[in-house]
Amino acid sequence: xxxxxxxxxxxxxxxxxxxxxxxxxxxxxxxxxxxxxxxxxxxxxxxxxxxxxxxxxxxxxxxxxxxxxxxxxxxxxxxxxxxxxxxxxxxxxxxxxxxxx
Length: 101
Description:
single chain; 6 helices
């Protein structure tokens, strides 16, 4: 039974990952405030990618209200997104793909 359940979880994760990518997560949750290479309401992904590590990006996504002072911001207006672990990983990878651009 445990092996069957594990196979279902793995198969479901593969199907979900195949349908979901960082760009889709970005378009769903981030587009209103962030753009890839230009300043919008929030910083561009290029700016974020050139300043932050993957761990910092994920930490800010998880809890922006506790992280903004650590990052040197005077305030944050970013809402706490309810992303699952896969979505956070995908958007972080997508953000970091703009490093150096």
